[in-house]
Design goal:
Number of strands: 0
Strand content: under 5%
Helix content: over 70%
Structural class: mainly alpha
Largest sheet: none
Bound molecules: protoporphyrin IX containing FE
Distance between the termini: 11 Å
């Protein structure tokens, strides 16, 4: 029972990550290129975006280490056994490793932007980190049509 619930949450969580990333990146680019102030709204959007990543990571880890039948804990041969089958390799290594890298980018960008003294470097650090994270997320989502693809809007 827990598996379908967590899978649906993780599947829809992708949209929270993608939409918040796009919004935050657009706002940071306008702030950077337009020399705008760093506002409370920017601060809130940053917090929300980082939290969406963290939540997605947490749900992903529950799937990875406990619930999913596509990851090493569910396989007889463990991690090495998954290498032979592309879909298992994708969910055992490529997807989590790439998403972890995206999470590191988002946290680093958020920390660097917090440390910046002036608004423009603040927007710039945040925009560039998000851009990198967004590329990684888009590359690692199992889009429909790929060999390991999943539906865009999962139901129960
Ligand atoms: C921003 C980060 C992430 C995003 C946007 C994301 C997105 C997704 C999406 C869209 C799916 C397909 C869901 C479906 O079948 O409808 C998926 C599956 C999966 N994700 Fe993630 N993911 C992220 C991070 C992670 C992390 C960090 C891990 C592991 C530590 C992880 C582990 C998994 C696993 C194991 C599955 C397959 C579950 C199954 O079908 O049994 N994900 N993810």
């Amino acid at each position: 029972m827990a598996y379908p619930v967590v899978l649906v949450l993780h599947s829809w969580g992708r949209w929270a990550v993608v939409v918040l990333c796009l919004l935050a990146m657009g706002k940071a680019l306008v702030g950077w290129l337009g020399g705008r102030e760093w506002t409370r709204a920017d601060q809130r959007l940053q917090l929300l975006t980082v939290s969406a990543f963290d939540t997605q990571m947490l749900l992903g880890m529950v799937l990875y280490f406990v619930l999913s039948p596509f990851t090493p804990h569910a396989l007889d041969g463990g991690f090495l056994a998954s290498r032979a089958i592309p879909t298992l390799w994708f969910f055992s290594f490529e997807h989590p490793a790439t998403m972890l890298l995206a999470l590191v980018c988002v946290h680093a960008a958020s920390a660097l932007s917090q440390r910046a003294q002036r608004p423009v470097p603040r927007h710039r650090a945040w925009a560039l980190g998000l851009l990198l994270a967004m590329v990684l997320v888009v590359l690692a989502i199992p889009w429909p049509g790929l060999p390991h693809g999943r539906s865009l809007f999962r139901g129960f």
